[in-house]
Model the fold of this input.
Amino acid sequence: MEKKNKFANYLCKPEENIYEIDFTRFKIRDMKTNTVLFEIAKPTDLRDCQESEEDVDPNAGRFVRYQFTPQFLRLKIVGATVEFTVGKRPVESFRMIEKHYFRDRLLKTFDFEFGFCIPYSRNTCEHIYEFPPLPEDLVNEMITSPFETRSDSFYFVDN
Done:
């Protein structure tokens, strides 16, 4: 994971997810005030969806686009809660590495262990992110170009 630039495309196809890991909810909160800053969840009953399978983008659900307030860039610690389900296979040593970029500059790398997940389980985990202090000129650039801040997430099973 020494790559310093963000990836342009996904490294795996959706059908290569042999563990059937499906992220169903994501929430970010300010740890100091406990304020929820962002929350998104998949519908629990897919019958509520009006689209046919042919209309669904196979990469839908593999990315989240959000825009935070300028105050977000000045936060020191946030909690990110993820909820995910696992299919019929046990998941050994589930790990996530996230790399956050502004343009082509790597800002921070986070490495989290989920551990073992039993088959057919729904799992929830909150990871605590400690942000590095950012120079004021960089914060201003990020505010004026909000969609140039990106991240790559990499998930590994059994190393």
The beta strands are 22-30, 36-41, 77-85, 91-102, 105-117, 122-130, 149-156. The helical segments are 136-144. The longest helix spans residues 136-144.
